[in-house]
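Researcher: Last one for today. Full complex below.
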Amino acid sequence: MSNLQVDENGRLRHFLSIEGLNRQILTDILDTAESFSGITDQHIKKVPLLRGRIIVNLFFESSTRTRTTFELAAKRLSADVLNININASATTKGETLLDTLRNLEAMHCDMFIVRHAESGSAHFIAQHAQPHIRVINAGDGRHSHPTQAMLDMLTIRRHKKDFSKLKVAIVGDILHSRVARSQIQALSILGTSEIRVVAPRTLLPAKVQSLGVHAYTDLKEGIRDADVIIMLRLQQERMQGALLPSSHEYFQLYGLTEEKLSCANKDVIIMHPGPINRGIEMDSQVADGPRSVVLQQVSNGIDVRMAVMSMAMGSINTAETTDPNAPNASKETR
Amino acid sequence: MSNLQVDENGRLRHFLSIEGLNRQILTDILDTAESFSGITDQHIKKVPLLRGRIIVNLFFESSTRTRTTFELAAKRLSADVLNININASATTKGETLLDTLRNLEAMHCDMFIVRHAESGSAHFIAQHAQPHIRVINAGDGRHSHPTQAMLDMLTIRRHKKDFSKLKVAIVGDILHSRVARSQIQALSILGTSEIRVVAPRTLLPAKVQSLGVHAYTDLKEGIRDADVIIMLRLQQERMQGALLPSSHEYFQLYGLTEEKLSCANKDVIIMHPGPINRGIEMDSQVADGPRSVVLQQVSNGIDVRMAVMSMAMGSINTAETTDPNAPNASKETR
Amino acid sequence: MSNLQVDENGRLRHFLSIEGLNRQILTDILDTAESFSGITDQHIKKVPLLRGRIIVNLFFESSTRTRTTFELAAKRLSADVLNININASATTKGETLLDTLRNLEAMHCDMFIVRHAESGSAHFIAQHAQPHIRVINAGDGRHSHPTQAMLDMLTIRRHKKDFSKLKVAIVGDILHSRVARSQIQALSILGTSEIRVVAPRTLLPAKVQSLGVHAYTDLKEGIRDADVIIMLRLQQERMQGALLPSSHEYFQLYGLTEEKLSCANKDVIIMHPGPINRGIEMDSQVADGPRSVVLQQVSNGIDVRMAVMSMAMGSINTAETTDPNAPNASKETR
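Model: Here's the assembly. Have a good evening.
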């Protein structure tokens, strides 16, 4: 799996999951994203890095929000964007997903941004794609959502600088969350001092400690002295099942309020992947308060997506192992 | 409200309603639109005025036609366009509309073209948007549709030159029409000599004279000696209610025919915001006849939308109060 | 009809059907497409031939696949693309289709890519469009799908060079297929030695021999010594009617397998317009085997669409009758 994401020179090829990447690559992504943040202040907010490239938003699961951020990032890199929404029911058979892939390859597309309800779909596509194709995972089942995790890391780094001294608490439906999985991996690779997860017992994975985290079922205990609190979005459909009490009771126990926040470090930042269910994951006072960095996450999402797109396309050269004297070094990743 | 639309130098900032704008600004819009009309004849029909800018078609109510005209205008100004259709039911609470706005701002979007079923939505968004964001109203409830009104004014001016000598009759569902409201305001500000409205009593607002218009319930009387006749589109759903007789009877009383047109000035022009219900608002002989300027309205719509977009973005400097020696004068409206 | 497609200098104006075009124009299209195939290998895969032009995908019948290929071809030519999907039910009356056309013309659009369930729609639009508008047929009812036929011709020519020595067999639902109609016409105009159609009797047109083809109801006989086999896509809805046995039985009789293929020429190429119903028109061994050129067809589709778009817009000058000394020769087709 690591070979799939990184080429022989250690450079990003596909961006499928945080798992299998090393600290250097994650840091390169953050640094590259940082370098793009200045573009926003320019009069013309575009760079020609991906001009003439065709980037396909290949969404088997609809998500206007995520699709929009990738589309904006691609346009800012001067790429042409094609939006394709495919009803998952039309591609139940693996061979048909492959047929879709082969057809888009034949149309000379360069990169696929893949969103799919099934875990492993982005890997599957990357495994079977032609060598010059690049694949970015925009969320696959319960498995991974790596660009979300990296925009969170960028947001944390901009506020806290050094991961090695941080206590980070992730609160909510850890069991079903691809976002939580990717965040835990990224925080761990970047050397976070202490990673905690906070959830009702029914929403914690069976052997959660094996992920290298501390598990809590009590919110105040879980966020005590925390520097960063990441609230997960609660999928409303969980409410109907046996896993959860009412949304009212959930808010009583796990909803973030100013009162409960007093347990955390006074410089704590509050994060949420959005959109917030106000009055369920947190109240509006917290969501719109001075510790909330939710909108900065959105901005950082554009920069991070520009970074992984341009790095995977070989338009930006960040790998430390590259020998500048090697002939055609940069062509190899095109 | 006037402060919201115009900056301290009297320049356009948002374009939300005709109300609150003065004759100079309306004339600037018409003049700017006029200056764009030449682009159509060029080999490459684009100007780089908004290159690198992100313009969002934020449509809470679907309208392919209006969305298309804004998209074309934006592309002709070299902007990047993002189309977002939001089901109104998902944003019933004001706070959620604000969340949508905040997220798009965080994605570094520059301008929102807002269409919404609720009156005042575009104002609401403009009031709460960050200072560098620009908002254009593409129709809000029964309130306002200012770009439609201005393309109508451009069409009238191209044919009739001087508003001060004109008799203009607006025919149809005055009561429910945001188009009629905006037209009456624009005609009035531009100094039209006589503005008339013609409708069944049930489709006239209660105190219609307070708008500065003459009301008629008889079509022939209402269009007598008129220089301009603006037919409104009849929403089919009005037919089901108690407000109107059958469409057949409506056409008998208020549908425009060559015969009825003989009452008007012989140089009269016939306008309609489209799409025409042939055989209801007018018959095809009139719609496709020599006095109809309906398709010129469509063309003028592109020019007018280019004008308000580029003026609001500060890319075109039209305000008479601007001091050219003022430092960074043009940057202030970015 | 031929006058509609070709101007007085013999140059392409609209691309509505293969019928009415001569061998020179078809060859020009193939040659122009060939010249575009190199663009794919460039670092920036765009040419500025249609910069500033507005191309409208006017789809009255939805087809993501076909729409995507035209959108990609247009973007590669640097045009701006507008996607408009119109529910056919909204345009049942001819006058309303005309109103749609008139409105898009008034918005200064340059070219319409038309897909419609009714035969003759693209011709109708071309007949009524203003002189500077260009129309490309992307499939109309059972009538014609000329870009599909030309991408098939390009694929055949790349493999077989000379049409005059070829035996080509088209297999499947000949009766209802616009693709088959266009292919037969193109093969015939290009001088193909022998054109065969293979189908159950219920799916053969009444007087099929009048098209200049040999008809077969037995697959092995029909593909004996064939150099090219074109499999048509079987519309699933045909299965429900009385025209066809079960899909299982269809595959037994008309599905392509390695075993049946042994009757054909050993250099035979297998074509299919896609998407393939695996196990119905052919099995996967054939679809993914060395004789299948299905994905090359997809690639060639981009080049062919670029060719007809740029030729119709007068951006490429291929006509043999053009006098280079004639003043403004190239402007006439703009």
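Chain A touches chain B at residues 40, 42-46, 64-65, 68-69, 71-72, 75, 274-276, 278, 284, 295-296, 298-299, 301-302 (CB under 8 Å). The longest strand of chain A covers residues 134-140.
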